[in-house]
Amino acid sequence: MKVLSRALFLLFVLAGILIAVSNTQLVQLALWPLPNVVIVPLYLLVVALLLTGVLAGLGLGWWTGRRHRRRARQAASESARLERELARLRGAIAERTPMAAAVSPTSSEHKAIERQSALVVPDLASPTGRGPLS
Description:
Helix content: 55-70%
Strand content: 5-15%
Shape: rod-shaped
Number of helices: 4
Structural class: mainly alpha
Distance between the termini: 85 Å
Oligomer: single chain
Radius of gyration: 41 Å
């Protein structure tokens, strides 16, 4: 995007230079309600009108973007508020959670788990053809 904007800028500068070099005639500028007449070179009049148009376009673009800038400011402040609340809640959780909960199960819990798994998983060491009722 930077390359495109720089290329367009150079194109406009080149066009302005060509206008200035080829249009050096003097013109009379009279504004109707005013009694004065101003004599200026044509290139200066063209460049002034182009500059006025660019500034008017920038002003209108800034004016129409005010709603988006306001919404962006509101979203940024809401995001900052939520980040502060998240940090506060994480701190509260860290204070409540003891470090002992992360310790592995005790030996009595291991024995209980082994007994339960022995009930669920069949004994593979017994002969396959004979069961306890045969």
